[in-house]
Amino acid sequence: MDLGIKGKRALVCASSKGLGRGCAEALAEAGVDLIINARSEGPLEETAKALRDTYGVKVTAVAADITTEEGRAQVLKAAGAVDILVNNAGGPPPGMWTDWEREDFIKALDANMLTPIALIKALVPGMMDRGWGRVVNITSQSVKSPIAVLGLSNSARAGLTGYVAGTSRQVAGKGVVMNNLLPGIHATDRAKSLDTGVAEKEGITLEEASAQRASGIPAGRYGTAQEFGATCAFLCSQYAGYMIGQNVLLDGGALITTM
Ligand code: NAP
User: Fold this and answer.
1) C-alpha to C-alpha distance for 144 and 231, rounded to whole angstroms
2) Nearest-atom index, ligand 1, CA of 47
3) pLDDT tens across 90-144, in order?
4) How far is ligand 1, taken at its centre, from the CA of residue 219, in Å?
5) 40 lines ligand 1 (CB under 6 A)
6) Could you tell me where the beta strands, DSSP code E, fall in the chain?
């Protein structure tokens, strides 16, 4: 399917691996030139090369921590004007509500709420001037149904969701479409590290911990980065022009809700 975005330019944050890479791959397949980012240079350069070689698009790789002001400045300088912004960063660590102090919350808010907001502020005005833009924020299913051990994530992502709900309606009239994409459990390093924590705590193997989690998902398995990326590319396509401020859940049916 031609998504109608060939030749557009996208910044995909935190995209050397996992869900961010899935988004970068699907956009590259649609003919979009990319600025990709992650902290570790080696894996990022490998991903950039793979995307160039496979899809023939232009890919600029910027190794920087997107959650810091300096990192964002580096990425924004290399990116220049972009048509598409995919906001992503690593998720906060799990823990107990009694353990989290102010500093832990500030860190989580910086990474998963204030970073995407800063990038939206930096890039959306240009999109509005040009009359076309797409923003996809990778959040989490925890926005709809909080995960107790991920209280830092629940809090920061709920804040971003509130901001997007209001802001998306303020920019839609200028052709900028802003939505959130909510992953349920996907087979990435993040899922593996959460499962490893459960395995250690319960004295079971990693495979047993993953199978235990998968059994609670109606689809009976974890999602893939490819499936996630395809939905992201659709939200960035010409066909998503009337979808404003939505929270699109990809969770294999795990959350039992009517809407
Ligand atoms: P992942 O497989 O661990 O990949 C994370 C990617 O982000 C890597 O490329 C990593 O590269 C990069 N990254 C991490 N922190 C960064 C930073 N500060 N600055 C720039 N790049 C950074 O994680 P994932 O599973 O794709 O998860 C992506 C997001 O979705 C996370 O926020 C996660 O909490 C959320 N999520 C995931 C799931 C799931 O099941 N996978 C479910 C719900 C929510 P470097 O380490 O080299 O920086």
Assistant:
1) 18
2) 9
3) 999 999 999 999 999 999 999 999 999 999 999 999 999 999 999 999 999 999 9
4) 23
5) yes
6) 9-12, 33-38, 59-63, 84-87, 133-138, 176-183, 247-250
Q: To test ligand 1's pocket by mutation, which of 13, 25, 36, 39 has the most ligand atoms within 8 angstroms of CB?
A: 39
In angstroms, how far is the first alpha carbon of the chain from the final one? Answer: 28
The tokens 């009976």 sit on which residue? 220
pLDDT value of residue 194: 85
Do 140 and 237 reside in the same domain of the chain? yes
Cα(134) to ligand 1 centroid in Å equals 21
Domain that holds residue 215: 187-222
Residue 36 has pLDDT above 90, yes or no: yes
CATH at residue 58: 3.40.50.720
Rounded-to-integer distance, Cα 251 and Cα 259, Å:
13
pLDDT of residue 68 exceeding 90, the answer is yes
| 212 and 117 in a common domain | no
- 123 and 195 inside one domain: no
Give domain status of residue 74, yes or no: yes
Under 8 Å between Cβ of 84 and 32: yes
**pLDDT of amino acid 89:** 98
User: Is there an atom of ligand 1 within 6 Å of 140 CB?
Assistant: yes
Count of structural domains within the chain: 2
Q: Residue 190: is its pLDDT beyond 90?
A: no
Q: What percent of the chain has pLDDT over 90?
A: 97
The answer on pLDDT for 1 being more than 90 is no
The Cα-based distances of 139 to 67, 143, 162 in angstroms read 15, 7, 12
